[in-house]
């Protein structure tokens, strides 16, 4: 489990084997840094210092992370939009991309919701489609860390919309 957290960038590791030490990525390597509040502006208790991933403005659109928590009316609308991909075992890449854009317009959808409605493997969907779309600027993320477990995707507003 720790290895997966390190791989996902949620933990940093030092050392090897039984001597391996783990820390949060935004913490300095020096153990005394846990109690050093100078970087936080003086007399701020360490527990109130937020990591960079959490010290961001929350997205303005609603985020849907779990299919079961998506309202029934929206589930039906998303299922209808997803039909060109969900009903085919092998959909063409442009069709998948267009469908994802339609699904993510005006809302943030998490990986599990997208994978469910499109009937696709979540890891494959993220690697082959979502990550390239984010890199191209076709999709925007809700959180700055790419592998944030809360990550969700939306279509960014065009310059005329903002």
How would you describe this protein?
With 162 residues, the protein is α+β, with helices and mostly antiparallel strands. The chain folds into two domains: 47 residues, no CATH class; 92 residues, Arc Repressor Mutant, subunit A (Orthogonal Bundle). It is 34% helix and 10% strand. The protein has five helices and six strands. The protein is elongated, with a radius of gyration of 19 Å. It starts with a helix and ends in an 8-residue tail after the last strand.
Features:
elongated, two-stranded antiparallel sheet, 10% strand, 2 domains, 34% helix, alpha+beta, Arc Repressor Mutant, subunit A, 162 residues, four-stranded mixed β-sheet, 5 helices, single chain
Record the SSE blueprint.
Elements: H1 2-7, E1 12-14, E2 21-23, E3 63-64, H2 72-86, H3 93-104, E4 108-110, H4 111-118, H5 122-135, E5 140-141, E6 152-154
Parallel strand pairs: 3-4
Antiparallel strand pairs: 1-2, 4-6, 5-6
Helix pairs in contact: 2-3
Chain-averaged pLDDT: 81
**Radius of gyration based on Cα positions:** 19 Å
- Percent helix: 25-40%
- Total number of helical segments? 5
Overall domain count: 2
Strand proportion, as a percent range, falls in 5-15%
User: Cα distance, first to last residue?
Assistant: 42 Å
């Amino acid at each position: 489990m720790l290895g997966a957290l390190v791989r996902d960038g949620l933990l940093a590791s030092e050392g090897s084997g039984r001597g391996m030490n783990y820390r949060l990525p935004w913490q300095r390597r020096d153990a005394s840094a846990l109690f050093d509040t100078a970087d936080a502006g003086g007399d701020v208790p360490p527990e109130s210092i937020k990591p960079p991933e959490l010290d961001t403005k929350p997205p303005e659109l609603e985020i849907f992370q779990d299919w079961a928590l998506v309202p029934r009316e929206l589930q039906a609308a998303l299922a209808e939009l997803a039909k060109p991909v969900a009903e085919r075992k092998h959909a063409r890449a442009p069709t998948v991309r267009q469908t994802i854009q339609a699904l993510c317009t005006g809302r943030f959808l998490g990986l599990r919701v997208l994978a469910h409605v499109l009937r696709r493997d979540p890891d494959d969907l993220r690697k082959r489609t979502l990550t390239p779309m984010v890199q191209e600027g076709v999709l925007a993320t809700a959180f700055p860390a790419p592998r944030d477990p809360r990550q969700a995707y939306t279509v960014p507003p065009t310059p005329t919309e903002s």
